[in-house]
Amino acid sequence: MQKITTYLWFDNQAEEAAAFYTSLFKDSRVLEVHRYGDAGPGPAGTAMIVTFELAGQRFIALNGGPQFTFTEAVSLYVDCDSQEEVEELWARLTEGGEESHCGWLKDKYGLSWQIIPRRLQELLSDPDPARAQRAMQAMLGMQKIDVAALEAAANG
């Protein structure tokens, strides 16, 4: 068992969100669902706590009501192997959500994600500071990260 687990507070969509998120990543699954009983505070039979794994990383989702909502102060960072992975995740996660800048988005539940191709980090840490700066400037103008455009900018 991992020592630290991310705990996500939803209004009433924890079970739906866990099913959606686990459909996006390999090595992902819903582990267990604890339901409210007659004592409440949620409606009896509805999900209270959902434990799930995304790419082997454990998360817990709570249906806690509308008192708290997600902000960009916390986001889930996805290290993508390819532009194709960026495209697929971006399309699925922005459906019903919203695009932001520099690889950030909010999904339909309001949770913030960073969908970042590994190549971006390589370009930003290029030993040639001018190449790294050109890649940074290009990235700052993007919503979804485009590796080909970053490469072109870095190469001047």
Strand line-up in the sheet with most strands: 1-4-3-2
**Proportion of beta-strand residues:** 25-35%
**Rg from C-alpha positions?**
18 Å
Tell me the structural class.
alpha/beta
Number of helical segments? 5
What overall form do the CA principal axes indicate?
A: elongated
Task: State the assembly state of the protein chains.
Answer: single chain
Helix content: 25-40%
Distance between the termini: 47 Å
Beta strand count: 8
What is the makeup of the main sheet? 4 strands, mixed
Order of helices and strands: EHEEEEHEEEHHH
Low-pLDDT residue spans: none
- Average pLDDT over all residues: 97
Describe the structure.
With 156 residues, this protein is of the alpha/beta class. The protein contains 5 helices and 8 strands. The chain has helices at 14-24, 83-94, 118-124, 129-140, 147-154; strands at residues 6-10, 29-35, 47-54, 57-63, 75-80, 98-99, 104-106, 112-117. A 4-stranded mixed sheet has the order 1-4-3-2, with helices on one face. A 4-stranded mixed sheet has the order 5-8-7-6. β3 (47-54) and β4 form a beta hairpin. α4 packs across α5 (147-154). The model has no long low-confidence stretch (mean pLDDT 97).
Supply the key terms.
156 residues; alpha/beta; four-stranded mixed β-sheet; 32% helix; 28% strand
Give a nutshell description of this structure.
With 156 residues, this protein is of the alpha/beta class. Helix content is 32%, strand content 28%. The protein contains 5 helices and 8 strands.
